[in-house]
């Protein structure tokens, strides 16, 4: 490999190398980043992080009402979530339809029932 070292004040400042070697180094660096991301994901799963299916992510990104999306993903009925959160079913229905805004206390209770964070159930 031919590399030209450019010195400045007696210390290496730049390395000039053939373009094909540069491209290979970029590819190797990207591969290393992918491997590190993969290792991080595997460790997060081993530490108990939940895997969220793509359809849930897409439903949220497409503007689905977060409480409804998470409730359906968890396989819970409105009545079950409402009872566990200590609210009426009609109140939960109004939250899911966007007819009412919930208080922080109510949304926190719903988030706890759905095992998500408060941010996960707040729209927009």
Shape: elongated
Uncertain stretches of 5 or more adjacent residues: none
Strand order of the largest sheet: 1-2
Strand content: 5-15%
Tally of contiguous helical segments: 7
Helix content: 55-70%
How many distinct beta strands? Answer: 2
Describe the largest sheet. Answer: 2 strands, antiparallel
Please compute the radius of gyration using only Cα atoms. 25 Å
Compressed to H and E, one letter per element, the order equals EEHHHHHHH
Short description:
The chain is mainly alpha-helical.
Characterize the structure shown.
The protein has 124 residues and is mainly alpha-helical. 62% of the residues lie in helices and 9% in strands. The protein has seven helices and two strands. A two-stranded antiparallel ribbon has the order 1-2. A hairpin with a 2-residue loop joins strand 1 (4-8) and strand 2. Helix 4 (78-85) packs across helix 5.
Structure characteristics:
62% helix, two-stranded antiparallel sheet, mainly alpha, elongated, 124 residues, 7 helices
Topology, element by element:
Blueprint: E1 4-8, E2 11-16, H1 19-46, H2 54-61, H3 66-74, H4 78-85, H5 89-97, H6 104-114, H7 118-121
Antiparallel strand pairs: 1-2
Helix pairs in contact: 4-5, 4-6
């Amino acid at each position: 490999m031919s590399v030209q070292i450019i010195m400045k004040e007696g210390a290496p400042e730049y390395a000039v190398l053939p373009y094909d070697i540069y491209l290979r180094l970029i590819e190797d660096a990207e591969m290393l980043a992918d491997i590190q991301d993969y290792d991080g994901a595997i460790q997060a799963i081993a530490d108990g992080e939940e895997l969220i299916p793509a359809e849930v992510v897409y439903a949220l990104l497409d503007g689905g009402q977060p409480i409804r999306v998470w409730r359906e993903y968890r396989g819970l009925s409105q009545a079950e979530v409402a009872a566990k959160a200590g609210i009426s079913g009609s109140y939960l229905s109004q939250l899911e339809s966007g007819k009412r805004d919930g208080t922080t206390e109510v949304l926190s209770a719903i988030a706890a029932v759905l095992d998500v964070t408060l941010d996960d159930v707040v729209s927009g």
